[in-house]
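Progress note, sequence design subtask.
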């Protein structure tokens, strides 16, 4: 199955025992969202997490669940090595304890930095950038390497490829980003085992007809998956449409929120490490105007893609639900098995109104469908 299908079509092919049928009247059924790049929420930035923040992390997991997200990788942006280690240890301890029902699950950590190109660091603090070496990565991860799921790095910082090889040996997914890598350098990194690109178009050389760069290499490599931000600020909708066509729709692309700590809070000014960010209509910028992220939930990106007529609803839904699983290496050649392995309340029902607006709701355990909610 290569597209989200109405529930009645999907379950017509399933064995009948113990199945309860719900007529969705042409709506779409999907898994919950999977957010592979989210930097914080409810005022807590993930790099600042401490051992005493369990209740705050629980609140974030609950809020993300309410926003339609089933699982996520807390993203630690560039900070001091000591702060990296503190956050990694605190989140590892949190993951080791049972999670209540109806809370988004942590799938491991995403380290976005500190081995990034200075010229493409964006909002990452320059003073905490580090060289790309096995020694630096090992020092950051400490005894919790098993909790690291993704590392974003600039491959040109290590021409030997030793760092990428070491991460792959540890089972870590390597994503290229915040990088000045040429197409040739990116292709070498992909051959060494990198399989992902962090927020396509952003913090990397633009596509150019004589210098395709990192993104051009990624879009022409079948084993590479690229994340994209659909908030209307990071990428123009026309470029999103171009990206989806070049990336074969949902086959090698996936949505991320890139949400910062003010996710779930109103617009305004908020502290961000030693600096301040201003949130206006869900867009976060530093005092100098540098785009730092967003506070829009993951599924808002799905709705935006449909609203902008970038793609059909089933493709947009896939980009936030099944596509991230594919990028993580999860086999979903038969998505029906993924549906059956989850409680009913982990499934989302999507409806498109006569005006084209796409909304979603979680199914209830007792099959009583609540009023559809729009993010």
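Output:
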């Amino acid at each position: 199955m290569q597209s989200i299908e109405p529930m009645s079509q999907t379950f017509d092919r399933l064995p009948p025992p113990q199945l309860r049928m719900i007529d969705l009247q042409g709506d779409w059924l999907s898994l919950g969202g999977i957010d592979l790049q989210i930097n914080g929420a409810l005022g807590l930035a993930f790099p600042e997490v401490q051992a005493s923040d369990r209740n705050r992390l629980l609140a974030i997991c609950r809020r993300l669940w309410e926003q339609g997200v089933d699982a996520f990788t807390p993203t630690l942006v560039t900070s001091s090595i000591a702060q990296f280690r503190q956050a990694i240890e605190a989140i590892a301890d949190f993951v080791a304890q049972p999670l209540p029902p109806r809370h988004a699950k942590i799938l491991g950590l995403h380290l976005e930095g500190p081995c990034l190109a200075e010229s493409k660091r964006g909002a990452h603090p320059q003073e905490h950038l580090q060289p790309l070496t096995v020694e630096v990565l090992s020092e950051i991860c400490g005894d919790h390497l098993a909790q690291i799921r993704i590392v974003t790095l600039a491959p040109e910082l290590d021409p030997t490829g030793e760092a990428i090889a070491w991460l792959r040996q540890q089972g870590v997914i390597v994503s290229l980003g915040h990088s000045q890598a040429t197409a040739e350098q990116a292709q070498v990194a992909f051959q060494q085992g990198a399989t992902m690109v962090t927020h396509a178009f952003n913090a990397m050389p633009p596509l150019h007809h004589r210098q395709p760069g990192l993104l051009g290499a990624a879009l022409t490599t079948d084993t590479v998956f690229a994340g994209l931000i659909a908030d209307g600020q990071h990428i123009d909708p026309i470029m999103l449409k171009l990206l989806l066509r070049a990336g074969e729709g949902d086959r090698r692309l996936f949505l991320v929120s890139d949400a910062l700590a003010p996710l779930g809070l109103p617009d305004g000014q908020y502290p961000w490490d030693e600096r301040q960010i201003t949130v206006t209509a869900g867009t976060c910028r530093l005092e100098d105007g540098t785009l730092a992220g967003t506070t829009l939930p993951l599924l808002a990106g799905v709705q935006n893609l449909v609203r902008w007529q970038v793609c059909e609803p089933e493709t947009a839904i896939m980009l936030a639900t099944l596509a991230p699983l594919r990028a993580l290496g999860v086999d979903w050649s038969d998505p029906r098995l993924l549906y059956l392995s989850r409680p009913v309340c982990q499934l989302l029902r999507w409806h498109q109104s006569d005006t084209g607006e796409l909304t979603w709701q979680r199914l209830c355990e007792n099959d009583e469908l609540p009023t559809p909610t729009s993010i």
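DSSP finds twelve helices and 18 strands in the chain. Work on this subtask will continue into the next period as scheduled.
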